[in-house]
Amino acid sequence: MFDSADSFIAFTASASAVAEQGGMIGIPVIVTSIAGQPAVSVTFDFDEASAAIEGEDFTLVNSSNTLEYSQGAGYDSIWIQPIDNDIFTGTVPLIINLTSNTQDYAFGVNSSHTLNIIDDEHPLGVWIGTYSVVALSYGNPGPWDESWTVVTSAVPGDSESLSMIINTGNGGGVSFLASFDTEEMTITIGAGTEVGELYGYGPTAMYVGDYATIDIESPVVGTIEADGTIKIDKIAMILTDYGFSGGYWDAFNTTWTLAGKKAVRVYPPVDKFMLQH
Question: Could you give the residue range(s) of every CATH 2.40.128.120 domain in the chain?
């Protein structure tokens, strides 16, 4: 049976996240006790190990570092306002610790909470988003053209690469890395990079090729443009379970357009592997 000795205080979750350009976020703290207990005050502080700096990355909206529970139980929140600055720092964690309370209640498992403040000044931010990709076939131009969707996202701790997932409409893509050179305005994907089961015939890997030939050593290299457009020619898709000869699905000249921009209409993909084999 729950009694006053079982009273405790805790965050309702151990972590949360907020965009740097987003609005303020409330982080709930719960006091669990039986009815009729006296009012309790709970103090908190910001851990010195936090990468987030008060006044630079966030401000505390509460008037003080103390939460008040006049009924002796219930919820109150720590309110944090992210600061949308012009400096790229990557995602910065703010660690908040519950430090004391006026009734000497025990702190629960979640006595610390990490708020991840997500930076919006990523140097590759122009190329982060959802792309509509026109993939023009080398194997059979027109009938074998494909239409892909590619989602790109930031990589924690890496400001020169993006994570990508390709969806061809025929299978499940997996995350892979592409490196960006904003001076040369190029994108590079390593030779043989596995990109998922894109066509329903097992794993698919990406190489350089034009359907008649394949280069198994050189990386796949394309160009990037300031408006977010990406162009990569000679993307050879290999079904790795079938080898370089039997598993040569096709090669493509691709144009990537951020969602919301006008894309070129193409023919729907067909089951080419069955036609070829």
Answer: 125-276
Nearby residues of 24 by Cβ (< 8 Å), 6 or more positions away: 61, 79, 80, 81, 82
- Kindly report, residue by residue over 179-207, the tens digit of the pLDDT: 999 999 999 999 999 999 999 999 999 99
> How many whole angstroms separate alpha carbon 43 and alpha carbon 66?
4
Q: What is the pLDDT of residues 39-95, one digit of tens each?
A: 999 999 999 999 999 999 999 999 999 999 999 999 999 999 999 887 777 778 999
Q: How far apart are CA 207 and CA 237, in angstroms?
A: 7
User: If one looks up domain 125-276 in CATH, what number appears?
Assistant: 2.40.128.120
**What is the location of CATH 2.60.40.2030 in the chain?**
4-118
Nearest CA among 269, 275, 235 for reference residue 143:
269
- CATH code of the domain occupying 4-118: 2.60.40.2030
pTM of the shown model = 0.58
The neighbour count for residue 183, using CB atoms within 10 Å, is 5
The gap from C-alpha 190 to its chain's centroid, in whole angstroms, comes to 21
* Cβ contacts of 108-113, under 8 Å, gap ≥ 24: 108/8, 108/9, 108/10, 108/11, 108/32, 109/10, 109/14, 110/10, 110/11, 110/12, 110/13, 110/14, 111/9, 111/10, 111/11, 112/11, 112/14, 112/47, 113/11, 113/13, 113/14, 113/15, 113/16, 113/27
